[in-house]
């Protein structure tokens, strides 16, 4: 892998809550070169930056909810600027906020406003997808494509989650190449099984009733269904600057840290 690899720290969120510095130390010891934050666990920007510098981890990015960004864009983005993040990604929006939804026009305007504040701080705004953005608008476009068509590329980049791209029905390598030059980071995540009718993600799956899917399982890289050699080749072609490993939920009887290491070792083998 010539592309540097970071870890989305949501993957090890319980470890972060229990031992913030120790978890970052373990992530660095595995060989990860950067991290993407999903909360700061009551640490100050100065504390977070100092710990990252101590263990030679680049604080690449952070996932920040759109509600927080709308409420206080200068304050929230200023926090991540102080840490040293180059990117901030909106991790999800609701169906109503997507193209075709009743809240889309307001959401688009908010994204433009947030992006301009971010740009003043030297931060690039991105959007991180799940699978439901691959539902179609009335004119037959994927809602994700319609979102990117509605906001200029210099104001909103994509952070394609390649697991959800495939679950949504697209080929991850081809779709990544489609956004060449607009995908500075991408989420590398694998899965096995079929989508089924159950809940696929705990954090945002508010619309699906019932238990988690029994036929779908998130996996470390190389242990699932995605053709990673093809995806890595596409990442080079598309200009991806950072591959960010993420696994939302543990599997295979392994701990989140063990799974993070499996994924990194697999990428190194390529």
In short:
The protein is of the alpha/beta class and 270 residues long. It has helices at 13-18, 20-30, 45-54, 66-71, 73-83, 104-120, 143-150, 162-167, 172-178, 228-238, 256-269; strands at residues 5-8, 34-37, 58-63, 87-90, 124-128, 157-161, 185-188, 190-193, 216-219, 242-245.
Question: What is the straight-line distance between the termini?
Answer: 6 Å
Q: Uncertain regions: pLDDT < 50 for 5+ in a row?
A: 205-209
Question: Strand count, sense and closure of the main sheet?
Answer: 8 strands, parallel, barrel
CATH superfamily: Divalent-metal-dependent TIM barrel enzymes
Beta percentage is 15-25%
Give me the strand/helix succession: EHHEHEHHEHEHEHHEEEHEH
Structural class: alpha/beta
CATH topology: TIM Barrel
Give the spatial strand order of the biggest sheet. Answer: 1-2-3-4-5-6-7-10
Average residue-wise pLDDT? 94
What's the alpha carbon Rg, rounded to whole Å? 18 Å
Tally of DSSP helical segments: 11
> What's the CATH class label?
Alpha Beta
Number of strands: 10
What share of the residues lie within helices? Answer: 25-40%
| Shape label | globular
Task: Supply database-style keywords.
40% helix; alpha/beta; 11 helices; globular; eight-stranded parallel barrel; TIM Barrel; 270 residues
Structure characterization notes:
- By secondary structure, this protein is of the alpha/beta class.
- The chain is 40% helix and 16% strand.
- The protein has one domain: Alpha-Beta Barrel (TIM Barrel).
- Strands 1-2-3-4-5-6-7-10 form an eight-stranded parallel β-barrel, surrounded by four helices. A two-stranded antiparallel ribbon has the order 8-9.
- β2, α3 and β3 form a beta-alpha-beta unit.
- It is globular, with a radius of gyration of 18 Å.
- The relative contact order is 0.15.
- About 2% of the residues have low confidence.
């Amino acid at each position: 892998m010539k592309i540097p690899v970071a870890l989305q720290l949501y993957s090890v969120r319980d470890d972060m809550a229990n031992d913030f510095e120790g978890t970052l130390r373990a992530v660095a010891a595995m060989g990860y070169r950067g991290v993407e934050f999903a909360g700061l666990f009551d640490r100050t920007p100065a504390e977070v930056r100092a710990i990252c510098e101590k263990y030679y981890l680049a604080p690449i990015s952070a996932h920040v909810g759109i509600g927080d960004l709308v409420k206080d864009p200068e304050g929230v983005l200023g926090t991540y600027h102080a840490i040293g993040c180059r990117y901030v990604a909106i991790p999800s929006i609701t169906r109503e906020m997507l193209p075709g939804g009743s809240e889309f026009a307001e959401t688009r305007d908010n994204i433009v406003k947030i992006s301009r504040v971010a740009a003043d701080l030297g931060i690039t705004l991105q959007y991180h997808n799940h699978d439901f953005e691959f539902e179609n608008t009335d004119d037959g476009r994927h809602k994700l494509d319609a979102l990117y068509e509605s906001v200029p590329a210099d104001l909103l980049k994509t952070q394609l989650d390649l697991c959800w791209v495939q679950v949504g029905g697209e080929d991850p390598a081809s779709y990544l190449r489609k956004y060449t030059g607009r995908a500075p980071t991408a989420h590398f995540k694998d899965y096995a099984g079929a989508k089924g009718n159950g809940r696929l993600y705990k954090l945002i799956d508010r619309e699906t009733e019932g238990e988690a899917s029994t036929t779908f399982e998130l996996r470390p890289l190389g242990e699932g269904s995605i053709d990673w050699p093809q995806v890595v080749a596409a990442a080079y072609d598309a200009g991806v600057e950072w591959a960010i490993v993420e696994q939302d939920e543990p599997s295979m009887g392994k701990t989140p840290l063990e799974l993070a290491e499996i994924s990194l070792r697999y990428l190194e083998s390529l």
